[in-house]
Amino acid sequence: xxxxxxxxxxxxxxxxxxxxxxxxxxxxxxxxxxxxxxxxxxxxxxxxxxxxxxxxxxxxxxxxxxxxxxxxxxxxxxxxxxxxxxxxxxxxxxxxxxxxxxxxxxxxxxxxxxxxxxxxxxxxxxxxxxxxxxxxxxxxxxxxxxxxxxxxxxxxxxxxxxxxxxxxxxxxxxxxxxxxxxxxxxxxxxxxxxxxxxxxxxxxxxxxxxxxxxxxxxxxxxxxxxxxxxxxxxxxxxxxxxxxxxxxxxxxxxxxxxxxxxxxxxxxxxxxxxxxxxxxxxxxxxxxxxxxxxxxxxxxxxxxxxxxxxxxx
Amino acid sequence: xxxxxxxxxxxxxxxxxxxxxxxxxxxxxxxxxxxxxxxxxxxxxxxxxxxxxxxxxxxxxxxxxxxxxxxxxxxxxxxxxxxxxxxxxxxxxxxxxxxxxxxxxxxxxxxxxxxxxxxxxxxxxxxxxxxxxxxxxxxxxxxxxxxxxxxxxxxxxxxxxxxxxxxxxxxxxxxxxxxxxxxxxxxxxxxxxxxxxxxxxxxxxxxxxxxxxxxxxxxxxxxxxxxxxxxxxxxxxxxxxxxxxxxxxxxxxxxxxxxxxxxxxxxxxxxxx
Lengths: 313, 273
Prior knowledge:
The complex is a heterodimer. By secondary structure, chain A is mainly alpha-helical.
């Protein structure tokens, strides 16, 4: 069959047909391009070109108004040398622990205990509640926690109610607790997300696997490490990507709750980039922070992506 | 598989504890919002329910204006994003053309780039074009960001569309555009709806773009309005709580009705990247 087709197509291709087919293909190609052109224009004008410009800006000293002067890599040297900038990158490292590692660890532990929760009645209610913080505007989340952490807020009221008056403090105004308090909001936000993700992952495991393990007398721990954890590799990768990237991008929460304070104790790169570009007239420095942050996010996304099991593609 | 009673109890206990963990701060907001505004003495259960804070926040905070701004921006972004995503997603899934891979990669970059990567020059570009301090400055960058997700989402959807149906339509002489809108789109409405919901949520909740792009009070979107309101009434937590509820409500109500779409959309959208 294939032989005859090949022969026939070889025989019947007249010399003049090839260019016309190529032309038809070009026209089709052009038509198809029109489908994507508007989207491409949006992407180039509002995302891609400005991103390249950020890299260009980062090589200048500019206050946003007067003429920019060439600074070479000085802005990048400052990121390492300037204590305020260096600290902001350290702080975001702490936030990664609270936004990502803690929620994932807690959710995995819980998944171990309640691995078959998806089969229970009422699970859709719990899923809805656990996921709820994800759909609320970050600004609303921020004002909520601002109120919880306030001197007479929910947290201090609770501490007083159980006789721990000595622990009460101005959580977001204290050098020792401000960063951890901001981080804890991330933990609160992401535990539910990770739990929903992992429980749905366990739900995809065939129940026969668990039954077989039980018949073989596997303990809960063996079951977790033998079946549940391997089955969750994809979900853990997703959870890592989501939570690490969101912690690196932390801006809204810091802007609303602390503006980087007290002192410099909660400043993060995204806040420094905003503040320097739009408040303190250090556009070049802001751009260099943005470049380092962007490269960091892209690198980490790529690295975590390599953990993804190949068969899910 | 049957769960033993003990297992069931433990499971429910864990779920209840963590559901409470998620809910307590939010319930705290609701309780604060219905407490009399004058109570600066801190958090406590109110004796009477007082809805005055909502009225006061609505009036004093200009939230009617902010919500109108948010609606204008959100609806425009949804409409444009949907049309352009459906078209581009169709082309990437079903048409062969020169350079399609590199173009798809460029569009995908929008999914990975954080707003910090482009917002600084974008502001100065738009300022030079005299576009800042207008709805356009809020709408256009938001469309660009939403398109990255939308195209990706629609391409996945259209790639799983049965090819024979499309071939049949072509044999009947339908043009690509007709095939798309009359054959492919109608059965894809559920997935388009999910995309619209997510874009609506992201646009409604967006903070950085409005913060950078507009200074005029009447252009502020609801979250930006709340941020400024918070600056003025920093310690009036009852008023702030009421304002926060007003802003979060539209999306939260949508979420309660369509939670499956929200959750599966957010999780699938990211996991299939």
